[in-house]
Amino acid sequence: MHAWPASEVPALPGQGRDLRIHDTATGGLVSLDPGPVARIYVCGITPYDATHIGHAATYNAFDLVQRVWLDTKRQVHYVQNVTDVDDPLLERAQRDGLDWAALAEQETALFREDMTALRMLPPRQYIGAVEAIPGIVPLVERLRDMGAAYELEGDVYFSVESDPHFGKVSGLDAAAMRLLSAERGGDPDRPGKKNPLDPMLWMAAREGEPSWDGGSLGRGRPGWHIECVAIALDHLGMGFDIQGGGSDLAFPHHEMGASHAQALTGEFPMAKAYVHAGMVALDGEKMSKSKGNLVFVSKLRRDGVDPAAIRLALLAHHYRADWEWTDQVLQDAVARLARWRAAVSRPDGPSAEALVEQIRESLANDLDAPAALTAVDRWAALQEQNGGTDEGAPGVVSRAVDALLGVAL
User: Fold this and answer.
1) Structural domain span for residue 164
2) For residue 220, what are the β-bridge partners?
């Protein structure tokens, strides 16, 4: 599976700052000092509907991570998956009378278009669950053979008790985990499981549903969590720098994935930091496909909204915050974009060196994009009020905003 084209990231004078970022597993900021190649895995979409603002906010957060690392002159090895076979996709295809594979391909293509328009840097590897199946099957067989998994009516489950570190990603107690498991794709009430929290690794073939050769597992398809584990271990290995996604993935997805990988390898942790973006609401409720209260990026683009304004609307909120999308949020972003473009269109202006360092410091401090935007606002206000004599300043500001914030002025 191919990703989307990369927009050019301008080189800036000076040196970027190392990233300090909030780690869900420890509950505080951690200082990340990757080697020459920073490694990040971000969980991708289940492609049964178009990209909504909640998706865009999540991928914007991890795009900023990449930009901070690139500014330190590191390379970035970014991997993202596509869950192109799963219950929600199959249910939507059946509801709408569509071929599930065609629906997945259609929505993945639209996602690529939205990511390109928003200037999100693409992953080095963009891998679908279906194409990962040949690598998933041996991992499930290994877990079963080592006693970390068991069969139940043809399905294969992971035993969470096989990982002594289970629970350290989310920090939740068993009761909270059980509630969330039921809400987020698990089956804690299924009779015969060793532990209600045990997640499925391999689902035996069901009539009328797609299935693949699972070797000694029989025909079927993979569970949700093992998909990302297989892809991450194959391309990044253990101990990569950041595992990322929305806050609703901390449990069960990232918790279970970490335990799968740790049981398989005997190493801990799977990732140095587990980083989670907040949820975006609409009309007082979390924006979600199941509720249908969505604002689609593609619809905004069709309505003539500049993608740079959409990106500024996302950047106006700290990535970990839960916030609500409103017409005013977008109007403020459109106005800000106009002010910034007017400011950099002049032939000279106030010195920009301090501004570049302010943007760098803000983003290095747990991706504080709102503080970075405020710094650019101050420079633009000075430009509007008094101007300046530095002929290179507008160009420096334009390149810095592009390189570090992903906004083309």
Assistant:
1) 20-286
2) 204, 212
